[in-house]
Every structure is written in structure tokens, then in C-alpha cells.
Amino acid sequence: MSTFPPRRRRPNMTLHLLEPLRYVPHTSDAEWESWWQSNTQDVSAIMESTRLLGANSKSECLAMARSTKIYERLVVYAYVHLSINEPLIPFLDQLREALKLWESWDECHALSKHHIIRKTIWRFCPVPFVQHIRGCDLKLLLDRDVREMRVKLLEILSDAQREKRFFEICLDDPVPALNLLQVLLDCNTASPPDSGQLMLSQAITGLSKSSATATTNNESPNDSLGGISQYGFPEDYVAHISETVHLDIRVEPYASSSCNPCRLASVPCNPGNPSCDRCMRFGTPCTYLPHGWYM
């Protein structure tokens, strides 16, 4: 009788290597999955697309997104897009640095500078509305971000002190804030109009009157964001996208209807005419664009 212990069967390493990676949920993964369940229609595809992201990356992603106060979903999209594309991973540090600049902003400041946040993030997603992440609908994420901004802005307008602070910040550069207010007004088609519609209309009137008498010599936000077009997209990608994916994202540079100042004053307006005095008070002629993320 042999006194040697029985030989252990060596595992079949070939089969092991061929076995597909399995998604093993744990605490941080549960939070990650829960976030996407609220923001996508294809959770399984997102889980597969992000399965190689570590727990620390997922936690950092959600923490960074929540720190911006607005555009939470757009930040998550940008972070994941950079993380799952190896050549783009070095740009994660630039995204982190950008978000650190906005951590100290409260909601009033973030909403008044919404265009800076959005246009900066666009730099990391140079082909908007093209699906970088399987199972993720960028347009849906943006729609939900805009609706969430509406809720936050209405909360500010409901508080006299916060409303005053918001207007004071906006006076430095009223055009982006006026555009945001108008877009939030347009995105709600409830009939009859809810109380929020009245608050937004009154805010547009109040900010327009206040900013019409204010004199500002600040640099245009677009000038400080080199390479970004007035639509919020990197300039050198606009023509390329339209030609390659047959998606015309080029919006007319001027409004197709009366601009906010002329509309509120109930006076004739020639949309797109740089000689419109009321429009020129705001630095750019008739720049109201009816599409939220083109502002």
C-alpha cells in the first residue's frame, strides 16, 4: 500500500482562462448599479461596459459628480468615457482638476456658471450624442440633468435671500443665466402652466431689468474657454460630426424668434441683426438658443 498522499488534480488552466469574467456585486457595486437603474434603460449593458472599473474608481466617480451641484449625470458619463478608453485615461487628471475648481461653488454659483461647467466637460467628450458607452443614452442623461436644474433653481427662487444672491452673481454675465431660465421655462409643457412657470417668467423679467442697467466689462466665458464654440462643442469637431454621422448639430448662431430683451420689452426684434441695441446690451446679439445644451 502506498504511503504517499493522493495526487491533487491540476486545474485546467485553459478552461479557466477562457471562462468569461463574472460580475460579482458588492457594496460599492450595488450603489453603482442603483445609480444607473435611475438613469438608464439598459442596466445590464452599463454593468458590462463598466465591469473593469474598480470599486475606488466607481466611488470617486459618484463623489466627483455630486460635488459639482449640477450636471451630475454628465460628469459620470465623462468619467466613465475616459476610464474605459485606455488612450483617454491620462485625461482623468484634467477632469479631476476642473471639478476641484467648482467644489466650493454653492448651487447659486453653479447654476449661474452652468455654461462653464458644461463646456469644460464637453472637452472630454468631443463627439456629443455619439454613443461612447454601450447602454448609455447621453441625451437622456442631459434631459434629466436639465430637469434637475429646474427643480434646484425653483427652490432658489422660492427663497428671497437665495434669489437675491443668485441675481447678484448673474449680473456679472447675465446672458447664460437668461438662456438657462428660458430653456427651463420652455422644457416644461404642462397645461395649464404650473407655479414654476410663473416663477421662471418673473425671474427672466427681473434679471433682464437688473442687467440692463448694469455695466460689465468682464471677458466673455467663451473667450476664456479656447477652442469651444458658442454651442458648447469643440469647434474643430462640429463640421466633422455632421459629415461623418449625419447628425446636424450646427444650430443657427442667432435666435429664430425674438431675443429675451426684445420679447420682454414687447418691441419689434430682428433676430440675428447685430444692430439690435437691446441685444447688444448683453454683449452678444440675439444669442438665445432654444436647445438646452447648446447654450
Q: What can you see in these coordinates?
A:
This protein is an all-alpha fold. The chain folds into two domains: 27-170, no CATH class; 175-211 and 249-295, no CATH class. Helix content is 53%, strand content 0%. The protein has 15 helices and no strands. Helix 11 runs antiparallel to helix 12. The longest helix has 20 residues, at 138-157. Mean pLDDT is 70; it is low at 10-27, 215-257 and 271-295. This is Zn(2)-C6 fungal-type domain-containing protein. Residues 258-288 form the Zn(2)-C6 fungal-type domain. InterPro entries: Zn2-C6_fun-type_DNA-bd_sf, Zn2Cys6_DnaBD. One of its GO terms (molecular function) is zinc ion binding. It comes from Rickenella mellea.
Task: Give me a quick take on this structure.
With 295 residues, this protein is an all-alpha fold. The chain has helices at residues 13-18, 27-37, 43-49, 55-67, 72-83, 92-102, 107-112, 114-122, 138-157, 160-170, 174-186, 195-212, 235-244, 260-265, 277-280.
